[in-house]
Design goal:
The chain is of the alpha/beta class. The chain has one domain: Rossmann fold, CATH 3.40.50.300. The chain is built from 9 helices and 8 strands. The strands form 2 sheets. It has a 5-stranded parallel beta sheet. A 3-stranded antiparallel beta sheet has the order 3-4-5, with helices on one face. Strand 4 and strand 5 (79-80) form a beta hairpin. Helix 7 packs across helix 8. It is globular, with a radius of gyration of 17 Å. The protein starts with a strand and ends with a helix. It comes from Entomospira entomophila. This is Cytidylate kinase. It is found in: Cytoplasm. Belongs to the cytidylate kinase family. Type 1 subfamily.
Length: 216
């Protein structure tokens, strides 16, 4: 059984997916971490700081990279890169990397292999529309930009101010909604959840009840 969760940056997808995984025993796939990993590796190799990013070499990098997930930790070429995935530089470039069609194709195939024959909860931008259109439960989790910025600020992923985080999220929203490949959208059969006035526990219990109904 696959549960696919889409939504904008800071909408609570990761927290919800993590809770579902821990409490219901689902394998957890955070698609954004794969894109962040490739972005971090590309930055290390100087492939993104050019006036024109080297799409060919970034795609080769994605093809050569090996991913595994153990105890909800993403290992990249057998290395835990968790501390490198939420830097300001990665935040700045990850949307551009995720807009490269050839990179998306490589990572989408990686994701399908990672979840093969597993009960999985996955989250990202196009899980419901592109990567797992056959998912048993599709969710679009949303919240206001102000609430999303506050949540991201409280997570203390970076040293950015609340205002800087909000501007970064607004910029990411615009890129996500308008990019030609893998654009953020609500598919017709997705369950739309507006979580601005809901706690994580509220949303979890809503979703857990729906999962129980599907399993019966």
């Amino acid at each position: 059984m696959i549960i696919a969760i889409d939504g904008p940056a800071g909408g609570g997808k990761s927290a919800l997916a993590s809770l579902i995984s821990k409490r219901l025993g689902f394998f957890l796939l955070n698609s954004g971490l794969l894109y962040r990993a490739i972005t971090a590796l590309a930055l290390q190799k100087g492939l993104l700081q050019l006036s024109e990013p080297d799409i060919g070499r970034i795609t080769e990098l994605a093809e050569e990279t090996r991913f595994s997930i153990i105890d909800d930790i993403l290992y990249v070429n057998h290395v835990d890169m968790s501390s490198q995935l939420h830097t300001h530089e990665v935040d700045r470039y990850v949307a551009h990397v995720s807009s490269i069609e050839s990179v998306r194709n490589v990572l989408n195939e990686n994701m399908r292999k990672l979840v093969a024959d597993r009960d999985t909860v996955c989250e990202g931008r196009d899980m419901t529309s592109v990567v797992f259109p056959e998912a048993k439960l599709k969710i679009f989790l949303d919240a206001s930009v102000e609430i999303r910025a506050k949540r991201r600020f409280d997570q203390e992923y970076s040293r950015m101010s609340l205002d800087e985080i909000q501007k970064s999220i607004q910029n990411r929203d615009e890129i996500d909604k308008t990019k030609a490949i893998g654009a953020l959208k609500i598919v017709p059969d997705a369950w739309y959840i507006e979580s601005s006035d809901k706690s994580l526990e509220d949303v979890y219990h809503m979703v857990a009840s729906r999962i129980e109904e599907i399993r019966e």
